[in-house]
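Recall the central idea of this unit: under ordinary conditions, the amino acid sequence of a chain determines the structure it adopts. In this exercise we apply that idea directly, starting from the sequence alone.
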Amino acid sequence: MNYMSHTAHWQFLGLIGGVLAWILIMTSTGINEWRLWHVEDVSVITSGVAWVGIWKACFFSHAFSSMETCQSISISDPFIPTEIPVAQVLMVLGMICGLAGNISAAMAMRVAYFSLEDRRNIRLLFLLAGTLYVLTGGLCLVPLVWNMTSVLNNRTIDFPPEFYLPAAPVKQQVGSAIGVGILASVMMLISGLLFLCYRYACQTLSSEAPRNNRDPLHGPWTETTLAQQSEAPNGCNQGRDNPAFHSEELS
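Accordingly, the structure predicted from this sequence is:
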């Protein structure tokens, strides 16, 4: 049985990158800094900047009892642009696929590093992990780039009056959540490619197949035996007398 632990070091780094990317994707989904809206009227929005995410819109104000005022954004709200509900759905799907990809990658690495007998499903595990990683990166990258494009084009949002936000800000900036999400998506894609490019499992399993079908009596020990026989002078296979046995007979 061939050992495969030395062949999966890059895939182990891919697993670490996938776990870190999944954590960053959850962080990007949860924080509100997708869009930074700079407003001219600071009578309500004291800081002059509002944070518009895919779940909430928040700003700091001294006009209310709480320093931070937030309003929830639902997927069924009619005033939000299409890219926000799409981001709500795709980012959640990306988190689920990322979790499944990390589980599949961990199982694949466990088989590669620790399993010596049952490795029939190793190709399927590496392929599944790589596919889920790539799918996660794609699911997250689409809404992130879409929202970033809307910010760069200064698209407006017709907020209702209870949000205290103007439809058209003075200017918009891309928030840190989009940058973190794009970085995590790229890390996911790289991790997926590392798992999809793992081909040593195919070579190892194909080389082990004929070896497992041979008769146990003609195992690897025959190679050692033949080598020892070839080292004997003139190929002689006759046994030698034991000097200790002769000494005992003479006494």
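Residues 207-230 have pLDDT under 50 and may be disordered.
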